[in-house]
Specification:
By secondary structure, this protein is of the alpha+beta class. Strand 38 (422-426) and strand 39 form a beta hairpin.
Length: 579
């Protein structure tokens, strides 16, 4: 019956959440570890006679073999068991599988093992998920806003830095409506704001609904506060009209509306009619959760043979057995058994297997009167394989337990990220190509020169040109490129002094002057040097005149070669007195 079902449900609930009761075998003993019990027993053996000593030793040995069982596992703040736990004792070696709470990600093997000492052995296997920090210029928030009838966990700080968070709580007898925590976020990379909006604290009270012929399955008590729930069913021969699970909402009312229990008999009171006239037609209505077997009206007619025509029947509405491919059912409730595996009123709680994620709403579904699961059962798709590796970098964070798993990359020291830092898994593939890590080259040092682009660092494949100062020349190639190895290719050139045309002698004299020991020697050397320069200058002028004379002579010879008659005429004209 429903009453017995309620009691069983409550008993299971108590078993799942109760602590292991102590057993006082001997004063000072404990059942948590069999070694401690044995030690407690042995400590008393020396106070008894030999015959009793043997019996107690035997008891000690027997106890040591049976007291290795574990009690209920501890309640973990970061995870919960995948399957419902109804037992209070677990054998040594029992392994329980756990899954992380929302907001936590798996980092280790999620198993608890009952060891030989009667203790649950495990390591922390879930860690809080972390958000990526955006690139900030300034992310400072003012103190979080205060709320009426409540307070926040922040102190007396004058300001809060980016990603700081505070938690709100309400005064006694007030209910918190909204988000429990808010965080310091940033708008436009400069403005610090608290997000989301802070909650409010209101006094919300719902009274226990008065439903004739109803049985309360869960949620007992005269008063309820915000989000409290109660589940009801109806006594035998009564049907529930409305939702069996209702919640106390902010308007101090139940949502959905409080259901009612109505008689399963037809409105037409047949008990007052034991005899019906021939031709009388009676109409039937299937109870909620049932439907006609045939697609025909539910009517019977009194025939002349004083018999009723055959009637269409009602059958229970069944919901299809969920496709459990890659899905785990973590909890379920079935009111009925028989032809249907799941029928109207049943519900199941589920989650995707490890390495799979839901592509639709997940959590809990219930079987409705039309034979469908609402919300719709999810489909679980496999998570993408591990994200691709990149040269000179790695993925620092991979989050798989989200609707769209993601991987975030970072570069090794001396390299800078180019492309999308975060890629997402969708439809078995990673969206966006993984980023690249470009090498960073330090600014080349150029003495007596300058760069075409002047920066502290240069990215791989970036090209710069070297220009030397006046009087200096480039030794090497002017154009160099930042290579993948964080070096410049080709080798960085240098700027060396180049003497302008006509200045070679000055350079030679400068070198000579630097080697003389006294000013007098320098003076004499300068005079000599001046004289040598003058001699060189005269030699240049002599050579110039000789070159000019030589050219003139060559020109005259050419004239004699080509014009001999003219030469005779000119001679007679120039010297007329000669015989």
């Amino acid at each position: 019956s429903l009453s017995s079902f309620s009691r069983k449900t409550l008993k299971r609930h108590q078993i799942m959440h109760s602590q292991r009761p102590p057993l006082a075998l001997l004063e000072g003993s404990t059942l948590d570890r069999k070694g401690e019990i044995a030690a407690s027993l042995v400590s008393r053996l020396w106070k008894v006679s030999n015959s009793t000593l043997f019996q107690m030793m035997l008891v000690t040995v027997l106890l040591a073999t049976i007291l290795g069982d574990c009690g209920p596992p501890p309640e973990l703040p970061f995870a919960f068991p995948i399957n419902p736990l109804y037992d209070t004792e677990f054998k040594t070696g029992t392994t329980l599988k756990y899954t992380c709470h929302p907001g936590y990600g798996k980092i280790n093997s999620s198993r608890l093992i009952c060891d030989a000492k009667g203790s649950w052995n495990y390591s922390i296997f879930c860690a809080k998920k972390r958000c990526r920090n955006p690139e900030l210029i300034n992310g400072i928030c003012e103190p979080p806003p205060d709320i009426r009838n409540g307070k926040h966990s922040g102190g007396d700080q004058e300001f809060y830095t980016y990603a700081s968070s505070v938690t709100y709580s309400c005064n006694p007898y007030f209910s918190l409506i909204g988000n429990v925590s808010i965080s310091c976020t940033v708008e436009n990379k400069t403005i610090g704001v608290w997000s989301p909006n802070p909650p409010i604290c209101e006094k919300i009270v719902c009274r226990r609904p008065q439903i004739p012929k109803a049985i309360f399955v869960s949620g007992f008590g005269p008063l309820y506060t915000y989000k409290d729930s109660t589940m009801v069913n109806c006594e035998e021969r009564y049907i529930l009209r409305g939702s069996s699970l209702i919640y106390c909402e902010t308007n101090n009312e139940w949502y959905p509306s409080v259901p009612s229990c109505v008689s399963s008999e037809n409105d037409y009171n047949l008990s007052d009619h034991e005899i019906f006239e021939i031709g009388t037609e009676l109409k039937y209505l299937c109870k909620p959760g049932y439907r006609p077997v045939l697609d025909e009206p539910l009517t019977v007619t009194c025939q002349e043979t004083l018999t009723w025509t055959s009637s269409n029947e009602c059958e229970r509405v069944c919901c299809p057995t969920p496709d459990l491919e890659n899905i785990r059912i973590i909890n379920e409730r079935r009111y009925f058994t028989g032809r249907c595996v799941y029928a109207y009123g049943d519900y199941i709680s589920y989650m995707c297997d490890e390495s799979y994620y839901p592509i639709s709403v997940d959590g809990e579904s219930s079987c409705h009167t039309d034979g469908t699961w609402k919300p719709k059962m999810p489909a679980c798709e496999p998570v993408c394989s591990y994200p691709p590796s990149i040269a000179h970098g790695h993925y620092k964070e991979v989050i798989l337990i989200t609707p769209y798993p993601e991987a975030t990359y970072e570069c090794d020291e001396g390299y800078v990220l180019a492309g999308f830092a975060t890629i997402y898994c969708k439809s078995f593939h990673w969206q966006h190509a993984p980023p690249q890590c470009k090498a960073l080259c330090l600014k080349p040092e150029i003495v007596n020169g300058r760069l075409s682009v002047d920066k502290d660092q240069y990215v791989e494949s970036e090209n710069v040109t070297i220009e030397c100062d006046s009087g200096y020349g480039v030794v090497g190639l002017k154009s160099i490129t930042c290579s993948e190895k964080r070096t410049w290719y080709p080798e960085v050139p240098r700027c060396e002094w180049e003497a302008p045309e006509g200045c070679e002698q000055v350079l030679t004299g400068r070198k000579l002057m630097q080697c003389l020991p006294s000013p007098e020697d320098v003076k004499v050397a300068l005079e000599v040097y001046k004289l040598s320069l003058e001699i060189k200058q005269l030699a240049k002028e002599r050579d110039k005149l000789m070159n000019t004379h030589q050219k003139f002579s060559e020109k005259e010879e050419m004239k004699d070669l080509f014009f001999p008659s003219n030469q005779h005429t000119e001679s007679s004209f120039i010297h007329p007195t000669l015989p």
